[in-house]
């Protein structure tokens, strides 16, 4: 272990503390770390806690702490005397009590000096905590979906990068989720560790046609791009829910056939957002080619109410074909203002819209995902029969009222 | 100790002796030194005493401060203790060729020792407060340790100095660092001295009030020494923290001392959406009070950095955040912002917009006749006023394992009616405030309707609260 981080107890001062650090002549002992804990439970900061046993003499003691070449935030250093070192609880002079009287910061050095007063000579267990820059973490996931895409095996990994200028031989690393682990992390080393692996996690596969968000795959033919998503629910019903899922890259593979001898193919990857317990992670994996959605503005009509006050009717027609041999749940989404622009019904007012009577989409807007700005319908598409896919004609009728 | 700052009794010389090139001088040492450091300005009042042996007649005294940041206009000498009535300051000379030096010409009516007190302002010494806060694992209580850190960049070492820290904002018409650089060559005479007089009167008022604190005992030498006490007392608009005993603070060093500690200050956890203060986000707050219940309340808490940690299950610490808070008077709230809690979903959803109460402004009529048909009269009119209603759902999902309390403020411009059953109050004429509580795992859609009167319908510029169920959202029903 490199001693870049060095607490030095000045057991014997050969010269008094002179004003300049370079003039400080001293005899020092070097207490090693007894235990190190690295707290990676914060989004942007890494807290290191180390325990050392320091020998103290009765009376005043100078404890030097230096961190040359590392990025410790000196304002965050917390020094706590936890009590006598194990086996040192009682000694001549009774219980060992130590107090930190002051902290001095020498000029031009990454160092500080604690003035510690001890009731008797003996060893004390101290805990030093500080924020350390350059020791970062990130999460990533690897998921293998079953051939039927009903479930997947989700593996969560943490990647720790140590550019902190200090190596940690046997640090207990606390991720804030899952169990702690004890692994050495060398200088400038990156270590990836499996946090958890959960098999048979149920997933929902969805398809979404949204001209504003995903655009067209063939605009002259009005064919919408239809991306495919996996939705992972972070709850107990879906074999998860023990901890939030941190932000990270998710790579998804799929077994190429049922059974044990299957190999895997890469389906795609996406950034998984932070997902609290009971919430869901939505992953965009790629574009579905077997679901065809042709979208056209079928009708556009203006009706004068009074003076310059008008209502507008806009009907959007979707011709949908599912060429898959599985039934599919399709999300059809429209941005209300985009529809008004497209139909030339834009005004200076907020849209006051209603669902019109010519709508053939069933069930009304999805209560969970729809808002005033964005309407989402869900449509169930039957599988193809043989080599024939049924073409569904679905309509969304929007009435924009009181515009001028 | 570096002897940048010296006082020399020039021996056997006449009053004009300092004009000569060959001098003989003795250098009396400091007996005591006191630093009164202000945190709001780069200003420290130094008061030191030295014992000097005077001879009957004229005694030239040289005071110099090479390579320091002392304001030369502020240097004063007083006589203390015995025989003060037999000593008098005849004049003070600032030699033109030695900007960091002055000569006092002192007349003595006796031969013997006397104590002189020299005081002056210096810049380059500062102090700052900071606080280490550790919340208990259940977030019910918090231990707080307050610290003061003194930094000395004045160019002078101060050994065994009594240190006093002043909390408060004083008025300065000129910066001490600037005066130190200018020296007396730039002095504009009476105006400068008037300023100096004002500054001194203010600072001396602080000094005189607690002279007794100079006599505070040194920290006990028996082991273990207790942590030094920091005595706090109020004075006028200021608060003085006096550090027990003396401290040695060499030039360019900093020293940090504990000013207070409390173990179990009760915490209230609250979530706030107050956009004007915290931005457009929901933040998690730790709220506590600087009072007796929290084992504090003895003094205000000066501006400083608060570093927040939380005890974890293994007895270690987890880092939460750090922030700077302004001065907190005794009895006032300490509001610590922990930032956004990702496990509490807070999303404002707009569900419906509709308009009614539409008024048309009639501008006249046009008559149209269809060829071969009838006549149609069209009145030209345009919209002149309307009410625009917007239905919102404040979606809140508590994914944390604890019950939560949210305090939400929404600010509106114009003539507004806020319709809801949320029991809101008005924070001010255009800001609505309401509170909601959620159990662990609970999901809530807090519905409300904002009606904005537009055009000729707008008569006021404020918010009216209406206790009624908002209009429905057809596509949700």
What features would you describe in this structure?
The complex is a heterodimer of chains A (404) and B (477). Chain A has 404 residues and is mostly beta strands. Chain A has one helix spanning 336-342; strands at residues 5-13, 26-29, 33-39, 47-56, 59-67, 78-84, 98-105, 111-118, 122-131, 135-145, 151-162, 168-174, 181-185, 190-209, 216-218, 223-224, 227-233, 248-255, 264-272, 280-287, 291-306, 309-322, 328-335, 353-355, 374-381, 391-403. In chain A, strands 10, 11, 14, 17, 18, 19, 20, 23 and 25 form a nine-stranded mixed beta sheet that branches. In chain A, strands 6-9-4-3-12-13 form a six-stranded mixed beta sheet, with no helix packed on it. Chain A has a five-stranded antiparallel beta sheet with strand order 2-1-5-8-7, with no helix packed on it. The radius of gyration of chain A is 33 Å and the shape is elongated. Chain A starts with a strand and ends with a strand. Residues 10-24 of chain A have low confidence and may be disordered. Chain B has 477 residues and is mainly beta. In chain B, the strands form five sheets. In chain B, strands 3, 4, 6, 9, 12, 13, 14 and 15 form an eight-stranded mixed beta sheet that branches. In chain B, strands 21-18-17-24-27-26 form a six-stranded mixed beta sheet, with no helix packed on it. In chain B, strands 2-1-5-8-7 form a five-stranded antiparallel beta sheet, with no helix packed on it. In chain B, β26 (425-428) and β27 form a beta hairpin. The radius of gyration of chain B is 35 Å and the shape is elongated. Chains A and B meet through β7, β9 and β24 of A and β16, β19, β20, β22 and β23 of B. β7 of chain A pairs antiparallel with β16 of chain B, so a sheet runs across the interface.
């Amino acid at each position: 272990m490199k001693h870049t981080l060095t607490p030095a107890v000045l057991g014997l001062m050969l010269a008094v503390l002179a004003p300049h650090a370079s003039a400080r002549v001293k005899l020092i002992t070097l207490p090693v770390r007894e235990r190190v804990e690295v707290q990676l439970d914060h989004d942007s900061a890494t807290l290191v806690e180390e325990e050392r046993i320091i020998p103290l003499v009765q009376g005043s003691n100078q404890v030097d702490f230096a961190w040359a070449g590392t990025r410790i935030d000196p304002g965050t250093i917390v020094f706590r005397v936890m009590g006598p070192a194990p086996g040192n609880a009682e000694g001549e002079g009774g219980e060992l009590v130590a107090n930190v009287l002051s902290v001095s910061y020498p000029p031009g050095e990454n160092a500080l000096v604690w003035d510690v007063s001890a009731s008797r000579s003996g060893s004390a267990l101290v805990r030093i905590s500080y924020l350390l820059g350059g020791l970062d973490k990130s999460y990533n996931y690897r998921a293998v979906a079953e051939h039927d895409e009903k479930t997947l095996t989700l593996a969560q990994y943490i990647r720790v990068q140590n550019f902190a200028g200090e190596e940690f031989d046997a640090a207990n690393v606390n991720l804030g989720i899952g169990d702690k682990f004890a692994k050495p992390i060398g200088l400038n080393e990156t270590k990836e560790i499996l946090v958890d692996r959960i098999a048979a996690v149920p997933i929902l596969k969805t398809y979404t046609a949204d001209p504003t968000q995903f655009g067209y795959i063939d605009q002259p033919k009005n064919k919408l791009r239809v991306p495919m998503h996996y939705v992972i629910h972070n709850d107990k019903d879906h074999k998860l829910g023990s901890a939030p899922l941190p932000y990270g890259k998710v790579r998804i593979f799929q077994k190429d056939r049922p059974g044990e001898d299957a190999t895997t193919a890469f389906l795609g990857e996406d950034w998984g957002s932070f997902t609290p317990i009971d919430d869901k992670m939505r992953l965009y994996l790629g574009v579905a080619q077997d679901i065809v959605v042709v979208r056209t503005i079928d009708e556009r009509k203006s009706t004068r109410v009074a003076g310059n006050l008008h209502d507008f009717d806009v009907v959007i027609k979707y011709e949908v074909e599912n060429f898959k041999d599985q039934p599919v749940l399709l999300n059809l989404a429209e941005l209300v203002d985009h529809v008004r622009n497209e139909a030339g019904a834009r005004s200076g007012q907020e849209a006051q819209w209603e669902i019109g009577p010519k709508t053939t989409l069933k069930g009304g807007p999805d209560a969970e995902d729809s808002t005033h700005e964005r309407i989402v319908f869900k449509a169930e598409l039957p599988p193809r029969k043989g080599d024939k896919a049924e073409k569904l004609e679905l309509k969304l009728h929007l009435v924009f009222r009181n515009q001028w | 100790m570096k002897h940048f700052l010296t006082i020399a009794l020039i021996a056997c010389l006449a009053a004009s002796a300092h004009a000569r090139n060959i001098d003989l001088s003795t250098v009396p040492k400091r007996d005591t030194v006191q630093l009164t450091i202000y945190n709001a300005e780069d200003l420290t009042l130094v008061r030191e005493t030295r014992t000097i042996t005077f001879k009957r007649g004229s005694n030239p005294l040289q005071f110099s401060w090479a390579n320091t940041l002392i304001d030369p206009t502020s240097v004063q000498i007083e006589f203390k203790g015995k025989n003060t009535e037999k000593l008098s300051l005849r004049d003070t000379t600032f030699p033109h060729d030695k900007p960091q030096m002055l000569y006092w010409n002192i007349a003595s009516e006796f031969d013997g020792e006397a104590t002189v007190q020299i005081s002056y302002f210096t810049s380059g010494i500062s102090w700052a407060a900071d606080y280490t806060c550790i919340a208990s694992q259940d977030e019910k209580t918090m231990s707080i340790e307050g610290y003061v850190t003194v930094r000395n960049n004045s160019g002078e070492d101060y050994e065994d100095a009594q240190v006093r820290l002043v909390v408060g904002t004083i008025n300065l018409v000129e910066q001490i660092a600037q005066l130190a650089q200018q020296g007396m060559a730039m002095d504009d005479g009476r105006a400068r001295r008037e300023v100096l007089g004002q500054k001194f009167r203010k600072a001396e008022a602080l000094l005189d009030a607690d002279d007794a604190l100079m006599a505070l005992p040194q920290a006990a030498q028996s082991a273990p020494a207790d942590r030094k006490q920091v005595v706090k007392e109020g004075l006028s608009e200021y608060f003085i923290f006096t550090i027990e005993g003396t401290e040695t603070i060499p030039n360019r060093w900093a020293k940090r001392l504990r000013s207070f500690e409390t173990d179990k200050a009760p915490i209230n956890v609250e979530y706030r959406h107050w956009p004007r203060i915290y931005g457009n986000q929901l933040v998690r707050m730790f709220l506590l009070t600087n009072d007796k219940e929290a084992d504090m309340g003895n003094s205000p808490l000066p501006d400083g950095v608060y570093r927040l940690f939380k005890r974890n299950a293994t007895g270690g610490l987890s880092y939460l955040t750090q922030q700077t808070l302004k001065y907190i008077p005794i009895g006032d709230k300490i509001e610590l912002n922990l930032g956004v809690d990702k496990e509490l979903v807070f999303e404002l959803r707009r569900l419906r917009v509709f308009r009614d109460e539409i008024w048309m402004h009639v501008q006249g009529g046009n008559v149209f006749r269809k060829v071969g048909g009838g006549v149609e009269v069209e009145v030209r009119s345009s919209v002149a006023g309307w009410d625009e209603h917007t239905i919102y759902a404040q979606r809140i999902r508590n994914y944390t394992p604890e019950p939560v309390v949210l305090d939400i403020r929404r600010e509106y411009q114009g003539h507004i009616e806020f319709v809801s059953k949320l029991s809101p109050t008005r924070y001010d004429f255009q800001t609505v405030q309401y509170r909601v509580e959620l159990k662990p795992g609970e999901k809530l859609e807090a519905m409300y309707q904002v009606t904005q009167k537009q055009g000729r319908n707008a008569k006021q510029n404020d918010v009216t609260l209406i206790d009624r169920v908002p209009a429905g959202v057809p596509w949700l029903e």
